[in-house]
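Standup notes
- HV: blocked on the assembly model, inputs below
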Amino acid sequence: MTTNRAKILVVDDDPDFREAMTAILTAASYGVVTASNVSEGTRTILSERPDLILLDIMMDSLFDGYSLCHAIRTSKEFECVRDTPVIFVSAVRQIAGSRFGFKGEEQGLAGPEDYIDKPVKPADLLARIERFLKK
Amino acid sequence: MTETTPLVLVIDDEESMRDSCSQILLKERYRVETAKDGATGIQLIRTLHPAVVIVDLKMPGMSGFEVLESLPGIDPQIVAIVITGYATVDSAVEAMKKGAHDFLPKPFTPEALRIIIGRGLERRRLVLEAEALRKEKQLLEEHFITMVSHQLRSPLVAIQQYFEVMLAGLVGATDDRLKEMIHKANERLSALLRLINDWLDLARIDQGRFVGAFQLLDVRKILDRLVDLMTPSARESDISLDWAGSAGPAFEVLADAQGLEQVFANLINNAIRYNRPQGRVRIDLRDEADSVIIEIQDTGIGIAQEHVPFIFDQFFRVGRPGDKIPKGSGLGLSIAKKLVEAHHGRIEVRSELGVGTSFTVRLPKAAVGGSATGGASA
C-alpha cells in the first residue's frame, strides 16, 4: 500500500493500542511505524524520521514518555529530529505523568505539542494530526 | 539529613566542664562543639544541627531549662542531656518533663558520659528510623491507590479504544443495530470509568491529597465559568440554568479552585440529572455575616424525607422507577460533602417530593487582607 502522506510513529507498550492506532491511521492513508518502549522508540525515531510522534506517557519504564520528549527537544542525539511534533497520549488525565506521579512541566521538562486522552476518538486524533502537520 | 559522625554540642558556662566533655567525646570520635551560654548554644543548634546537646541546668542568663523548652521549636528530634551540680530528684523530674532524654549529675565519670551519649544516639537513630518508615508508608499508600486505579482503568480504556475504532467504521461495514449496541456497551464502560475516577478522588480527599494549597478566589467567577461550561449539556437535557451572571460583587474565599469547581459541578450535574422536563436549576450566590452562601435549587423530583439523612452517603442512590441504569457513580455527593468540609464549610439539603431540591453550601469568607496559606491537612 503506497501512501504519499506523512509517517506517524506510535510509541506505546500496549499492543492493543498500537493496533487500534494503526487501524485509524492507515485508514486515513498515513504511514505507520510502532515501538513498544522508549528505547525502541528512540531507535525508530532516528531510523525512520517520522513526521509526527504519538507518545504514551504512562509506560512501564522509569525513563518514560516525558523524558523522551524532553530529549527530543534538547539533546544532541535527537538534533536531526528536533522539531518533530509530539502528542502525548494518556489513559488518565489527572495522573498525567509517569506512574511515579510526577508532572513533567513542573519538573522543567520540555512539553509536547498536545495531549490527547485515551480512548482516542478517530476523528479527534486525525484533526489534531492534520493541524500539526500543516505547520 | 544523613548521619555522618554525630555532632555533640556542649552548653556549659564552666570552661573546665566544656573542655573535659570535649576531650571525652573527641576520644570517642564524636564531633564536638561548645557554647558558654544558652543563647549561643541555641544559635549553634540552629546552624549546626547537632544530634545531641549536653546542657548544664544552672547557668547565668538563659538557664538549662529555658534551653530545653526552646528545643522542640528548633529541632524536635535532637536528644537533650542535662548535667548539673545540684542533682536532685526534683530537678531531674522537671528536666525530663521538659523533654530531656537523660540526666547526668556532676561529677561524672567519662564512662558515665559515654554510656549516656551512646543511649541518646541510639534513641535518636530509632526516632529517625520511625519517621522514615512513616513517610515511606505514606508514599506507598498514596501510590497504592493510584496504582490500583490505573490497573482498573487500563483494560477498560483499551476496550473502549477498540469500540471507538469500530464505531468509526474502520474495521468493516457495520450496520446500525451493531453500532447501537457497541455504543451502549461503550456507555456502560464510561460509567464504570467515572466510578473509578470518583473512587480515586474520594480516596485522595480522605488522604488529604486532593485539596491543594488554598488561594484567594472569587466564588462568583468560579460559578460563572462553570455555568458557561455546563450550559450546553443542560440545554441537551432541556433544562435551563438560572444564574445572575458575572455582574455583581465578588465573594472571596480561601479555597482550592479545583476542589470548589468539583463541588459545584457535582451539585449542578445532579440538579440537571434529577430534574423534570423543561425544568430549571437556579444558582444563587449571596453572603450572610461571615459566610458565603451558594444555593443550587432544582425543580426536580425531590427527595423523600426518609432518604434525606443518607443523601451524602457513599453509593446511596434513590432509584427512579424504570431507571435500571443509574447515571451517576453514587459518589458525587459524598465527594462534594468531603470537599466542602475540607474547605471548613458546611453543606445542607432541603427537599420536597415532587417539587424540588435545594443544596446550600456555606463557606467561610476570606478575611479582608487574607493571603494564600497552606490548605487543608487531613
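- HV (later): unblocked. Chain A has four helices and five strands. Chain A has a mean pLDDT of 82.
- Next: hand off to the docking folks.
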